[in-house]
Amino acid sequence: MAVHQHPHRTSGFHLPSFRRARTASEPAVSEVTDTHTVQAYAFASLRLLTGFVFLWAFLDKTFGFGYATPSGKGWIDGGSPTKGFLSSVAAGPTESAFHSWAGDTWADWLFMLGLLGIGLALVAGVALRLAAVAGTVMMALMWIAEWPPAKHLSDGSPSMSTNPFVDYHVIYAVALIVLAAVAAGDALGLGRVWAKLPVVRYHGWLR
Question: What pTM value is reported for the model?
Fold first, then answer.
């Protein structure tokens, strides 16, 4: 006797399901998105912390909070933000030049405006390319002033240099360049709003 197997009856019309393919791809997409988000916030955190370094230096040198700048010796009290550092340069080929600049009005204003401008740009997340250029120039000059390659100061005493090439000035300069390259102002900053301004759209170097 033949046995006939009858197919299960179904009612209605069903579209093919893509649920399995979508479910398989979702973890990869989510993982990539999460990675980009983590990177964006990591760079934003680096930007904010670096900006605070510059802003704090400006504020301390201006008002004399008693840290690097003694109380009553701030810029508003008649003190010079550059005299102490530049007059203490004791190594390198530009030692005499830095000594002659120490305490000059133009040097004070240029240095302080640089600290303020770079600090504000980093904290706000705008004009990061300009901040990177200005900050790199400033760090290069400070590196030359301290002259890490020297084993001995001009008076013959040990320089106590920990690395003849890479010091914190180089690290700050590289950090500024990286922050500008990855548009770190878009997260936790005004970078996207800044980029939409007509003058910034037409002049990419302002980005």
Answer: 0.84
